[in-house]
Design goal:
Layout lengths: L24 H24 L4 E4 L1 E2 L3 E4 L13 E5 L9 E4 L5 E5 L2 E2 L10 E8 L2 E6 L13 E5 L15 E5 L3 E2 L11 E5 L5 E2 L5 E3 L5 E2 L5 E6 L5 E6 L14 E4 L14 E4 L5 E4 L11 E6 L5 E4 L5 E4 L2 E4 L1 E4 L4 E6 L4 E7 L10 E3 L10 E2 L6 E9 L4 E6 L2 E6 L6 E9 L4 E8 L2 E9 L1
């Protein structure tokens, strides 16, 4: 048999590899030196991450192709690939690797709608199975400062302002002075934009738009609007005037101090401020969202030492900021929130001083205090993000468990490899790195907390 020219020539079946036993001693030397080189190449690729690096993506915006080197011959759950996007996607998106069949691209388990993958940005795709790839943006692991958002000038129109286009960024300056009567559909409920319209622009409080103060608003020079999608087709517009004068909103004249646990609020509490002042942890329940008209709100502030949990009623959900389909919201001392009903089944976070994931949290290295197969509890009062690097000396599988359920897994088919397991851990949840099979060790353990 000839000496293999690359690692791709090798077989996973021992009998199919050289030497076969009939080669001359000098040929055997060639085989041994070649295989030693393959081992070193693999080691270098694991060390520098090039096994997963696919360079700039090929294909089209919605049908991405990746060409890792060496190429893969089949898909397997847990495979990870990194790439730089060449285009911004505009809808449902697929991914094909090494010329294999396409797999569906998802973001946190949901199909793409457009704008999730942005040209020039870096991404990581991991296969949750042989038909689906979960894609997430790559960021510096020691990110502790502010995230800088793109700002763009946008031509405003009555109903088709390109508010949600990824190319227009999160902060927008609007040109033109139309009377706004509607916005295009948002990519998801909870999406937000910070907007600086030209003076004279009118935002209409009617139809799908609910404006702070309950009336049409004519923009003054320097005013800032916060436009939030309550659903994909209904919107709330908050107003911050440049001169600092408050825009009339729901009346907070009815202020009630809550000094006991277990309050259940009703639609009669609309427009009021609920001030919690309890020394120990306490829990309360919202009214059903459909018992209020769309745009009606209740405000809450915690001035007590005990943490406050505000729970949904029935199957309602809480959306906005970093929450998506949440069942409750926690307020620590000094924090406040205004919750607005969509009139159906969602409470939207209209205004909040709550520090959600990322602010004011920092990355902390906890390697010396963490171990494999040990269970830890997130008691920080906030969701945290856990990122763990593991290494193995044999084949096997290892999982990141949250509340006992697997949220990430790696299962390499060759030894001496490194892998990263990461997941969001909600407040109060348990988490652990659990060895399923094989021999594993911790290499690094970081938490955004």
């Amino acid at each position: 048999m000839p000496v293999p020219s690359s690692i791709a020539d090798l077989s996973t079946t021992p009998a199919s590899n050289s030497p076969a036993g009939s080669e001359t001693p000098s040929s055997v030397d060639d085989y041994l030196r070649t295989q030693a080189a393959f081992i070193k190449q693999t080691y270098n690729a694991v060390q520098d991450g090039s096994l997963a690096w696919c360079g700039t993506a090929g294909g089209t915006a919605n049908a991405i192709t990746l060409t890792p080197s060496p190429a893969i011959t089949a898909y397997a759950a847990g495979q990870v690939f990194r790439f730089k996007a060449a285009s911004t996607n505009t809808g449902a998106t697929t991914l094909a690797i090494s010329g294999l069949t396409t797999v569906a691209v998802q973001i946190n388990g949901a199909a793409c709608a457009g704008g999730e993958i942005v040209s020039g940005q870096w991404y990581e795709a991991w296969l949750s199975d042989a038909t689906t790839a979960q894609v997430r943006a790559c960021a510096a692991p020691n990110q502790v400062g502010a995230i800088n958002f793109k700002r763009a000038t946008v031509a405003a129109t009555a109903t088709t302002t390109p508010l949600w286009s990824a190319a227009n960024g999160n902060i927008q300056d609007w040109a033109g002075t139309p009377t706004i009567t509607d916005f295009p559909a948002a990519p998801q409920a909870g999406a937000q934009r910070e907007v600086y319209p030209a003076a004279g622009t009118i935002i209409t409080h009617a139809g799908n738009i609910s404006v702070q103060g309950g009336a049409n608003y004519t923009v003054r020079a320097g005013d800032k609007l916060t436009i939030a999608a309550v659903t994909t087709t209904t919107f709330y517009v908050g107003v911050t005037r440049k001169d600092g004068v408050s825009v009339a909103g729901p009346s907070l004249a009815a202020t009630a101090e809550i000094t006991a646990t277990g309050a259940t609020f009703t639609n009669a509490d609309v427009g009021s401020l609920k001030r919690f002042n309890v020394a120990t942890s306490n829990s309360h329940t919202l009214p059903a969202a459909n018992s209020l008209a769309a745009g009606q709100a209740i405000s809450f502030i915690n001035i007590g030492a005990g943490a406050v949990t505000i729970n949904r009623a029935g199957t309602d959900t809480l959306n906005g900021c970093n929450l998506s389909a949440a069942t409750s919201l926690r307020l620590n001392k000094g924090e406040s929130v205004q919750l607005m009903s969509d009139g159906a089944a969602v409470w939207f976070i209209a205004n909040s001083s709550v520090a959600f994931l990322g602010a004011p949290q920092t990355w902390q290295n906890l390697l010396v205090s963490r171990a494999l197969n040990a269970t830890y509890t997130n008691s920080t009062g906030r969701d945290i993000f856990v990122s763990v690097v593991v290494t193995n000396s044999s084949t096997g599988a290892i999982d990141l468990l949250v509340d006992g359920a697997r949220r990430a897994r790696t299962a390499p088919t060759a030894g001496s490899s490194y892998a990263t397991l990461s997941a969001l851990v909600p407040d109060g949840s348990t988490y652990a790195i659990s060895v399923a099979t094989g021999v594993w060790a911790l290499f690094d353990w970081n938490e955004l907390r």
